[in-house]
Design brief:
seven-stranded antiparallel sheet, alpha+beta, three-stranded antiparallel sheet, Jelly Rolls
Amino acid sequence: MRSLLIKNKISFELIKNKYYRHYNKYRSKVEEKNELLTELDENGIVCINNFLDTDTIKKINNEISDDEASLVHNKYTGKQPIWRFEDFGVYRLLNIDEVSKTSKIFFEHPTILDIANSYVGKNAKSYQRMFETKAIPGRESSADTLHFDDWKHRFKAFLYLNDVSLKEAPFVYLKKSHHPGPWKKIKEYEYFKYGKKGTYGHYTPYEVLRIKEEYGFKETIYTAKAGTLILVDTRGLHKGSVLLANKRNILANYFETGYE
């Protein structure tokens, strides 16, 4: 068993090294790009207030309001795929750009696509476009504990569709935790070996406290107005928050490399 475990860990390191050699071949040099890309590379996250104006956000909300209500109340009859996590109070409508034409301003925005192609690689692809609502206060999910999404490169763009205070489940991120480090190796190997089942990639409060103290990571809570854009490298530790009141609605665009 011990020899098999060592072999698996070695295999993982070889696979990871091969993946990043390929990824680095196609990634643009950060120093040749703009300030947003430099900040993303340094901190793992960028927050841009007023990315879309109030009128545009209002149009998007109007276009999805009927589907949002039917989704939450389990009466959705539309054509797009849905995910309902009732125990967590989280509801998702995929391919939302087919429902809200105005949302294409976000999903096809040249600034976001340029950063994705520079940060992730020239073969970056958008593999998920969705609307998500947190609609039931007090419910907590595994996504509300600090975790990383994958050891592979993952990049996401979030757009707040309503004002988000501490009550409306803001996004939370540990800046600079996307960089490689010895503290990640065990969790990355567990994720490689077992996949997304269970809590692989998740950290306990004690583990988080130790990592913060040892590496100086700062936890940032992203409260912001509707129209705010968050660009994030989800190899870094991040989480949602428990909804305390009202609701929290977002659009999300997920990118990955063209090489797996």
